[in-house]
Amino acid sequence: MSVIGLLAFTNLNSVKAQDVNTDTAAQTEVTEDSAAAVAEEAVAEPVAAATDEEVESKSFHEVLKEKYIQGGAGWMTPVLLCLILGMALVIERIIYLNMSTTNVDALLNGIEDNVKKGDYNAAKELCRNTRGPVASIFYQGLDRVNEGLENVEKAVTSYGGVQMARLEANLTWIALFIALAPSFGFLGTVIGMVQAFDDIEKAGDISPTVVAGGMKVALLTTVFGLIVAIILQIFYNYLLTKIENLVSQMEDGSITFMDILIKNRK
């Protein structure tokens, strides 16, 4: 009996030891799995962060270049040319109009002082040395003082029309580029949509990927065309406002100029 009891006790201890070893191994496996999962998450987070940083680190020019390529160089290039040529004309007009701005009151005061003295040559010299269309108009009037006030008025009116035409030069080309930019964009969009439907026909199925990709590329030309038109339109309206102010100065100055000649006529 003692021998049987000893053997039973030994077997019981062996079973308990095996159970303990099994539990320890299971816990070890769980710990290793958890550590592996944490390591994977730790590796995934920097990768995701790096991806986000790469997206955020793209400069504005890189994004524009990417969208330009996606829209297709064949249709984006005409839109870009409209922007370049339109802005070149806008800059030229801004410089010309700024150079045409004159202090009309100071010029009229100088002319009046010389006319009161009877020194019309000094008045003409003052107009010759003053830049701007207003001074040119006054010079043409002073150059015909000896022909009578009626001829002076005709000269001022006629040369005022010439100067107004010079102020409005190249505006028609800017307006043309404002109209062409979205037109090229819409044309590129229509052709892109046709190509998208061709891709659908070839695939034999309306796949969202095919449709969305084709539509995105097609609509990019319209977006860029509208942006170019908006930019040029803003500058175009600014130029019109500038020209209206100069024309108003020319008209008011011409009236005052004629009054000065009438008051001091020979």
Description:
- The chain has about 270 residues and is an all-alpha fold.
- The protein folds into two domains: about 55 residues; about 200 residues, no CATH class.
- About 90% of the residues lie in helices and about 0% in strands.
- The protein is built from nine helices and no strands.
- The longest helix has about 55 residues.
- The N terminus is likely disordered.
Beta-strand percent range: under 5%
N-to-C series of helices and strands: HHHHHHHHH
- CA-to-CA gap between the ends? 158 Å
Share of residues in helices: over 70%
The residue-averaged pLDDT reads 77
Tertiary shape: rod-shaped
Separate helix tally: 9
The tally of domains stands at: 2
Residue stretches low in confidence (pLDDT < 50, at least 5 long) are 1-32, 34-39, 42-55
Oligomeric organization of the protein chains: single chain
Main beta sheet strand tally, sense and closure:
none
Number of strands: 0
Report Rg.
41 Å
